[in-house]
UniProtKB/TrEMBL annotation:
Gene3D superfamilies referenced in this protein's UniProt entry, alphabetically: Peptide deformylase
Listed name of the protein: Peptide deformylase
Active-site residue numbers: 155
InterPro entries named among the record's database cross-references: Peptide_deformylase, Peptide_deformylase_sf
UniProt lineage: Bacteria, Bacillati, Bacillota, Bacilli, Lactobacillales
Organism of provenance: Schleiferilactobacillus shenzhenensis LY-73
C-alpha cells in the first residue's frame, strides 16, 4: 500500500528527470506498481481510509512521484458529483494533439510532491488527444477536455520532469488569455 511517506517531494532530482519508456509485457514489479498507484488514488478518495492512513486525496499519481523514473501514471478522475469519469493507467503517453485554446483550474493546482501552495493559473490546453498503452500494452487513444484533460496534462508533465508551477507566470500569476476556459 502506498502511503504519503512513499511520495517523493520537490527537490528530489527524480522529479526533474525524463522518465524511461515502459516495455511490455510489464515485468512483475512494474505491474504491481501500476496496481499500487491506482490503489493509492482509490484509498485516498475514500474518506475513512484516507483519514485512517493520513492520505492526501489525489486524482492522479505518476511513477516518478514514488521514486520510479518510468513512463507510467494512474488517473482516477471524478466529476463534481463524485462520479468517476476517467480511470486508467497511462503507459508511454504522448499528447498528439492539443487545442490552441488554453484552460486552467480556477483554484490553481497543487501536487502531492509539492508541499507548499503556489498560487496562480497553471496554463494548459483545454482539449488534448493522448496516445498511450494501457496496463496490458494495448494501444489506446483518449480525447479529453476541461478537468480530465488538465489532470492528464499534469501527470504527463511528471513523466517529462515538469511540475505544475513551471506553467505559472511568475510576474503575473493570475493573468490569463481572455479566451481561456477557467475550469471549476
Ligand atoms: O501528480 C499528481 N498529483 O500531484 C496529485 C494531484 C493531481 C491534480 C492536481 C491538479 C490536476 C491534477 C492531486 O490530485 N492533488 N493535488 C494536491 C492536493 C489536491 C489533490 C487533488 O486535486 N485532489 C482531489 C481533487 C478532486 C477530487 C479529489 N481529490
Ligand atoms: Ni503532481
Amino acid at each position: 500500500m502506498i502511503l504519503m511517506k512513499d511520495i517523493v517531494r520537490d527537490g528530489d532530482p527524480v522529479l526533474r528527470k525524463v522518465a524511461a519508456p515502459v516495455a511490455f509485457p510489464l515485468n512483475k514489479e512494474d505491474h504491481q506498481l501500476a496496481k499500487d498507484m491506482m490503489g493509492y488514488l482509490i484509498n485516498s478518495q475514500d474518506p475513512e481510509i484516507a483519514q485512517k492512513h493520513q492520505l492526501r486525496a489525489g486524482v492522479g499519481l505518476a511513477a516518478p512521484q514514488v521514486g520510479r523514473s518510468i513512463k507510467m501514471a494512474a488517473v482516477l478522475v471524478p466529476d463534481n458529483d463524485g462520479n468517476i469519469v476517467l480511470q486508467e493507467i497511462l503507459c508511454n503517453p504522448v499528447i498528439t494533439r492539443e487545442s490552441v485554446r488554453p484552460a486552467a483550474l480556477a483554484e490553481g493546482e497543487g501536487c502531492l510532491s509539492v508541499d507548499e501552495d503556489v498560487p496562480g493559473y497553471v496554463v494548459r490546453h483545454d482539449r488534448i488527444t493522448i496516445r498511450y498503452q494501457d496496463i496490458n500494452g494495448d494501444k489506446k487513444i483518449l480525447r479529453l477536455k476541461d478537468y480530465p484533460a488538465i489532470v492528464c496534462q499534469h501527470e504527463i508533465d511528471h513523466l517529462n520532469g515538469h511540475l505544475f508551477y513551471d506553467h505559472i507566470d511568475k510576474k503575473h500569476p493570475f493573468n490569463i488569455d481572455p479566451d481561456a476556459v477557467i475550469v471549476k
